[in-house]
Design a protein that fits this description.
By secondary structure, this protein is mostly helical. The protein has 10 helices and 2 strands. The longest helix has 30 residues.
């Protein structure tokens, strides 16, 4: 008979509904297709591996046009709209979180956060704006007869450089997710441990 006491099971609390997780996964899939096809179109070493460049172009265009649709469909969910409200609300605690991040202060007490921290809010706002710019410039490049050549040239410049920036930012986003297994578990299953929530998001009241 073992004398060692078993650790009590961790209490799990709901964080994301099925609809919210569906929007995140579908958007991530479409964004991944856009980034991957863009790499095969613009990196010479990868472009040489593709025999049907026109097909890659079409897949890239279709994925780009579909990219906003998961978010638009998610608006039918009350939980998703509530999360958008949290992401769009910046308070004094968010400014404190950013100051701590700039100082590289990793103490949980110095980084207060509600359901989303300031970094997540800035990322969400930036990626939403970047997606709209990419969609607009991409449509100019796709339907060449709709705009003057000067507009198309400018759109190509913005599209290409913003695509590179998105790739870098997405790599950072994925890296931070890989460093936090419990956050990934929350997005995958919808629940997180209460201990994690109290440590990482102490102002969140589920």
């Amino acid at each position: 008979m073992s004398l060692r006491a078993e650790a009590p099971p961790m209490t799990r609390i709901p964080r994301f509904t099925r609809a919210v997780r569906w929007v995140h996964r579908t958007t991530a899939l479409l964004m991944g297709v856009c980034v991957l096809t863009a790499a095969f179109l613009y990196v010479p070493e990868l472009a040489e591996l593709v025999g049907r460049r026109e097909l890659v172009v079409r897949v890239h265009e279709i994925a780009g046009v579909l990219l906003p649709l998961p978010v638009l469909a998610g608006l039918a969910s009350r939980a998703f709209r509530a999360d958008l409200g949290h992401l769009n609300r910046f308070g004094p605690h968010d400014r404190r979180w950013l100051r701590a991040a700039l100082r590289r202060d990793r103490r949980p007490a110095s980084r207060p956060a509600a359901k989303f921290n300031a970094g997540q809010k800035i990322y969400a706002a930036w990626i939403a704006g970047a997606t709209l710019v990419m969609l607009g410039t991409g449509l100019m490049m796709w339907f060449t007869h709709l705009t003057p050549i000067m507009w198309r040239t400018s759109a190509t410049f913005v599209h290409d450089w913003l695509a590179l920036t998105i790739g870098v930012v997405l790599a950072g986003h994925i890296g931070m997710a890989l460093a936090d297994p419990e956050a990934r578990h929350g997005m995958r299953t919808g629940s997180v441990t209460r201990e994690w929530a109290e440590r990482e998001h102490p102002l969140w009241r589920p």
